[in-house]
Write a structure and sequence with these properties.
Structural class: alpha/beta
Number of helices: 14
Number of strands: 13
Helix content: 25-40%
Strand order of the largest sheet: 1-9-8-5-4-2-3
Strand content: 5-15%
Largest sheet: 7 strands, mixed
Radius of gyration: 22 Å
Bound molecules: pyridoxal-5'-phosphate
Shape: globular
Order of helices and strands: HHEHEHEHEHEEEEEHHHHEEEHHHEH
């Protein structure tokens, strides 16, 4: 039971022999940049989510940047984003000198508030970027209806949502275009990586050209026997392609997707059992329309029942050897967004409440039963020690 005394990290990537062997194979093959592994990763990913296209890139940020470029976003346009998200969701809009219009979220789920979203639509609004917070899926039916009514694009931020389901359908094919992240802490990880999934030929074609300098041919085609040396640059593109070594890790994680997902679900179930009915905090509110990837397991403190703040609660967790995190510091609290777009926390009562109460607990596939029970015991012990 040595583990009982060890620090439980907030996250640890699950590495099996499969990741190791595919990565070693990729290294030994000598093909280190985008090549056959990237192509296979795209094909298998498109098949998983049921889209015509999947375009692999080196991050969610790159994926979403290319997507907005393909959609023709212009300076002065407005794009709606939720207050509770990572900066990347809004920064990609700023790349175009367009305006991220920050809207409030649901106070219990952290998902974008549909009514607040509708109220924020102006003649300048071009699109919506819903974020599937923690792996739970936004109300996509309402979002798609609103988008159609006002002629807006929908770009889903599915950085947390693999695999997540909405009314039984896997995220990736619920709207115009979806962007995924394979950053090291995400449910399917490559270290750094991302994917654009869409049925639209125009978006897929533009993104695949722009991810590699705006050249109209992939490098691997140029240098293989059947390829040609000739290419044409049709626009000043970007350098966002994924390497074959990273794609190898992605392929291994894709094979293990359901194995890893079941483990996360199992940990969430253990947490739910241990925490159900307690008066000190709320466990994740699960929507009936959505089936979460369990990227995050978040609790919302009932501050009127505790004598310590959220920050002090996190200090106590750390002191007792439990890692944790906060998702996210709302956009309007960051100096850049606050000052540039004159945002004040008074406009976001729900996001403010969510943020001030939220703690993300460790939920990674290789967590042992002992580690899970160390977390549950520590959390309950802190609650009892600091009960009002
Ligand atoms: C991680 C994350 C991103 C950015 O992903 P990268 O692959 O690191 O660019 C975007 N949105 C959300 C909600 C995230 O959590």
């Amino acid at each position: 039971m040595r583990e009982m005394n060890d620090f439980v990290p907030f996250h640890k990537v699950s590495v099996s022999e499969r990741e190791v062997s595919l990565a070693v194979e990729a290294i030994k093959s000598g093909w280190w940049t985008s090549g056959p592994n990237v192509k296979r990763f795209e094909e298998e990913f498109a098949e998983l989510v049921g889209t015509k296209h999947a375009v692999a890139v080196n991050s969610w940020t790159g994926a979403a940047h290319l997507t907005l470029e393909a959609l023709g976003l212009q300076a002065g346009d407005e794009v709606i984003v939720p207050a509770i998200t990572f900066t990347a969701t809004a920064e990609i809009v700023c790349y175009f000198d367009a305006k991220p219009v920050v809207v409030d979220v649901d106070a219990e789920t952290g998902l974008i508030d549909i009514e607040a979203m509708e109220r924020s639509i102006t003649p300048k609004t071009k699109g919506i970027i819903p974020v599937h917070y923690g792996g739970q899926v936004c109300d996509m039916d309402s979002i798609n209806v609103l988008a159609k009514k006002h002629n807006l694009f929908v770009l889903e931020d599915a950085a947390h949502a693999i695999p997540s389901y909405y009314k039984g359908n896997i995220v990736g094919n619920l709207s115009d275009v979806t962007c995924f992240s394979f950053y090291a802490t995400k449910p399917l990880a490559c270290g750094e990586g991302g994917m654009i999934t869409t049925d639209r030929d125009d978006i897929a074609e533009r993104c695949s050209i722009m991810r590699l300098h705006g050249m109209n041919r992939d490098a691997w085609k140029r240098y293989t026997a059947e390829g040609k040396w000739y290419y044409e640059v049709i626009a000043p593109g970007y350098k966002y392609n994924l390497t074959d070594i990273h794609a190898a890790l992605g392929l291994a994680q894709l094979e293990r997707l359901y194995e890893l997902h079941i483990k996360r679900k199992d940990i969430a179930a253990q947490y739910n059992r241990a925490f159900s009915g307690n008066e000190y905090f709320q466990i994740p509110k699960i929507l009936s329309d959505s089936d979460t990837s369990w990227h995050l397991y978040w609790i919302l403190l009932n501050q009127e029942k505790l004598t310590i703040t959220r920050a002090e609660f996190i200090d106590e967790l750390t002191k007792h050897g439990v890692g944790s995190s906060v998702h996210f510091i709302p956009l309007y609290l960051h100096p850049y967004y606050r000052d540039t777009f004159q945002l004040s926390e008074r406009e976001f009562p729900n996001a403010n409440s969510f943020y001030s109460r939220e703690i993300s607990l460790p939920i990674f596939p290789d967590m042992s039963k002992e580690q899970v029970s160390k977390v549950t015991k520590t959390v309950m012990q802190i609650c009892q020690e600091f009960a009002k």
